[in-house]
Amino acid sequence: SLNAGVIAVQGDVSEHADAIRQAATDRGETAEITEIRQSGIVPDCDLLCMPGGESTAISRLIQSEGIAPEIQAHVEAGKPVLATCAGLIVAAEDAGDDRVENLGLLDVTVERNAFGRQKDSFEVPLSVTGLGEPFPSVFIRAPLISGVGDADVLAEWDGRPVAVQNGSVLGTSFHPELTPDSRIHGLAFFGE
Ligand code: GLN
């Protein structure tokens, strides 16, 4: 069984846990979910999810709890991470916000809330490199990926990148955990 960690200091956690379990089942695997609120757990995880929520809060708490360097070590060891929405903001190289200490796991720059306010949330089917049928993508006060360095763009909406990958790290502006479709989790954790 895989040891799957979900960063749980703030944000949506149970939806990611369900999607990880489903993605594992689809590949004939099982996953044990651990919610991470303190240091010392990430080193035992085979894979990690960084959920959506409020990026300034998530950043502050993973720093004060000493979780941030463990996530970086996890990536340096080549292990997979899926970072969604606020998770993507924290994982990016730069978010242009002093309250976010970026982890630099994805070579992209982002702008918080650039897809509009909460009322502008929307769902759209997107074709994603590595997936067959379009993926139902839910955007909620989503970050705009404003610059792409040495990262692969897996999906675009309206001509803008919304899913990116650097090695074992996959980031999405949208929320793949909010639809019953677990293929993005499958792609992030088990590959194509
Ligand atoms: N607007 C949030 C932020 O900037 C992200 C929104 C989300 O994760 N749904 O942190």
TrEMBL record:
As recorded in UniProt, its EC number(s) are 4.3.3.6, 3.5.1.2
Q: Give the active-site positions.
A: 85, 175, 177
Q: Name one GO biological process term.
A: pyridoxal phosphate biosynthetic process
PROSITE patterns to which the protein is assigned, alphabetical: GATASE_TYPE_1, PDXT_SNO_2
GO cellular component terms, semicolon-separated: cytosol; glutaminase complex
One of the entry's Gene Ontology molecular-function terms is:
pyridoxal 5'-phosphate synthase (glutamine hydrolysing) activity
The reaction(s) this protein catalyses: aldehydo-D-ribose 5-phosphate + D-glyceraldehyde 3-phosphate + L-glutamine = pyridoxal 5'-phosphate + L-glutamate + phosphate + 3 H2O + H(+); L-glutamine + H2O = L-glutamate + NH4(+)
Q: How does it assemble?
A: In the presence of PdxS, forms a dodecamer of heterodimers. Only shows activity in the heterodimer.
Q: Which NCBIfam families match?
A: PLP_synth_Pdx2
Give the family, as the similarity comment puts it: Belongs to the glutaminase PdxT/SNO family.
What protein is this chain from? Pyridoxal 5'-phosphate synthase subunit PdxT
Question: What gene name does this entry carry?
Answer: pdxT
